[in-house]
Specification:
The protein is 30% helix and 13% strand. The protein is α/β, with parallel strands linked by helices. The protein has two domains: 4-126, Rhodanese-like domain (Oxidized Rhodanese, domain 1); 155-278, Rhodanese-like domain (Oxidized Rhodanese, domain 1). The strands form three sheets. Strands 1-5-4-2-3 form a five-stranded parallel beta sheet. InterPro entries: Rhodanese-like_dom (IPR001763), Rhodanese-like_dom_sf (IPR036873), TST/MPST-like (IPR045078). It is an enzyme of class 2 (transferase). One of its GO terms (molecular function) is transferase activity. Keywords: Repeat, Transferase. This is Sulfurtransferase.
Length: 284
């Protein structure tokens, strides 16, 4: 099953008569509420998806900033979005598919034919394709989600990952090295993690790079793609994008949803700083 769809191919699908459900997942750390932008302009018939309320759930700080939603709640949201069994579902955003990948990751193993719009809103507009304004409340759907793990790793799995395979930190280098703390109580990385920033896999036009380029990028970091790969980021959003990039390249990976926001709040966990996976262990 393909994981991406190009704007022109999506335009053809919309004209084909097959049920297509469009999910506008606009979200970013500096602008977490994407509804105003959605109302201003969105793809035809797209419904707004609130990432923090529908693709995550409220939790305790020690669980990380964006714990995964319960299956029943996710199914209820998917029905609110108008999804029926057998529909083609397209997720997109305006931030290089970082947020859209979270929807893709949560739904892909659960019986939903979901793809990410390659190039997102920017790519759609660049092709001169139509937009619409206003909010949309579709007729509720009846989709049934399978009770299948989307590919999660626990905090203990993340700790063991450098021994059993590879642990990949997808954050920016300054976060990995411990230069920037951000929203978390301590800066640095999980010992043994290799830093491959998510932006590595994004082309200048916002599309994902080719499978060959993605594989070559990981191999340049001496990552054996035949071994198990576990991904983490700041709070479990950006790492889903790297999971999408790897899936596009034919490689499956697990995501540690709590990511650094959970690890950094667990005082029993060691923290490394510096450029290398081992780095310098930092005491609390």
């Amino acid at each position: 099953m393909p994981h991406l769809i190009a704007p022109r191919a999506l335009h053809t699908e919309l004209a084909s008569g097959r049920p297509v459900r469009m999910l506008d997942v606009r979200w970013r750390l500096d602008v977490p509420e994407g509804r105003p932008a959605y109302v201003s302009a969105h793809l035809p018939e797209a419904v707004y998806v609130n990432l923090e309320r529908e693709l995550a759930k409220p939790g305790y700080p020690e669980e990380g900033r964006y714990p995964l939603p319960d299956l029943a709640d996710l199914e209820q949201s998917a029905r609110r979005w108008g999804i029926d069994d057998g529909d083609l579902v397209i997720a997109y955003d305006d931030n290089d598919a970082v947020a859209a990948a979270r929807a893709w990751w949560l739904l892909r193993t659960r019986g939903v034919d979901i793809r990410v719009l390659d190039g997102g809103l920017r790519g759609w507009v660049a092709e001169g394709l139509p937009l619409e304004r206003g909010d949309r409340a579709p007729q509720p759907g009846s989709v049934t989600l399978l009770d299948v793990d989307p590919g999660t790793a626990t905090i203990d799995d993340a700790a063991r990952a450098p021994i059993t395979g590879h642990l990949v930190d997808t954050r920016a280098p300054e976060q990995y090295r411990g230069i920037a703390t951000g929203l978390d109580p301590v800066a640095g990385h999980i010992p043994g993690a290799v830093n491959v920033p998510a932006i590595t896999h994004i082309a200048r036009d916002g599309t994902l790079k080719s499978p060959a380029e993605i594989r070559a990028a990981f191999e340049a970091y001496e990552i054996d793609l035949d071994l198990p790969i576990t991904l983490y980021c700041g709070a479990g959003i950006g790492s889903a994008h790297t999971a999408l990039a790897l899936a596009h390249a034919g490689v499956e990976a697990r995501v540690f949803p709590g990511s650094w926001s959970q690890w950094s709040r667990s005082q029993s966990r060691p923290v490394a700083v510096g450029r290398t996976p081992a780095g310098v262990l930092q005491a609390w």
